[in-house]
Fold this sequence. Notes:
By secondary structure, the chain is of the alpha/beta class. The chain has one domain: Ribonuclease Z/Hydroxyacylglutathione hydrolase-like (Metallo-beta-lactamase, Chain A, 4-Layer Sandwich). It contains ten helices and 17 strands. The chain has an eight-stranded mixed β-sheet, with helices on one face. It is globular. The relative contact order is 0.15.
Amino acid sequence: MPNTAMPAPGRAAFLFLLAGCAPAAGARPDWSAREAAPPVTSAPPSSVDITWLSVTNVYLRVGSLGVLTDGYVTRLPKSAFVDQTLARSPAAYRPDSAAVARVATMLGGRDAVQALLNGHSHFDHAFDAAMWAKSTRAKVYGPRSTCYQLAAQDVPASRCTAVEGGETLTLGDGVAVHVVRWNHSGDHAVNPELHDPRELAGVPTRDPATGGLRPGVTEDFPNGGGSRAYLITVATGGRPLTIFFSNTGSPVDLDQPIVVDGKNFGAPIDDLRAALRDAGLASVDLWIAGGGAPLARLVLPVLRPKAYLPVHWDDFYSPLEAGVAKPFADPALESLLDSAGVALVRPTQYLDRWRLDRSGVRAVANDAQKRALGLPR
């Protein structure tokens, strides 16, 4: 998958993504919360289909509503960064618009995604958010930095809503999302450029030669003030179906307040407790998470999930079409989940799909989509 150069402007996939997406002249970012009109459903859904698209990219289908988390399809090479800290880049890069178009088409085209929930603004989570806004009808929700990144790529401000934590979003009929302020993995003493909460101060400037942005985490893609996690509830006419999505997290300061530009957003674990209380929940059906055993050990007693789907354990430099390089294995996490009575939902290949209903989570076949992307069998 090419990453080092912008696809030629005449390419059909690129034109498809850009069609009708330029903002009005002189438009300025406006981060006031505006909700897209929710789709109308005739009856409450009885299940949620969950497809893992690699890294922390998860596609949720609830009736006619499609929700995508993060959506990083482009694969920047390791050479896109000066060193392993990922702090700085030697050049600017543009998203692989053709790759995003392929995945969007596979999911169902422009109507496949109505909402994109971005956890944080690092390149391996937010780099393709603008492309999803252009190739589908998705309204993007995420940190202020993500909205600035979209504005830099000519996405109208009305398509991105910045969330700080504490908000409740309505994505569709009976589908609500409580936003939880969360922290980023790592440790201030070890890798502050990754871990410490950082927001962009304004819309970044694209490189004049390539039109791209610099993906370094101290450049155009900081973490967005820590991270955002999302507590999703789906009304079914009885007991709701519930999912908690967190694409990162650190056990080091989960109980310490996140402070950005002098504003205190509270401690992540306390914000999770508040979201559960506001949603009227004592537990959730499924936790989709990165972070492994150290983070899970602190969160499990509060969240009390019935099942756990691990994400962000794979190689985010390798192309999606190459498939999973090695099986999931985390003995410490598996032992912890087993001792807590939490079912491990074990991913084996990209585009694995599961169905969540009142009986729990079970695998369902997704061979057609896997064949469409040429994934290894």
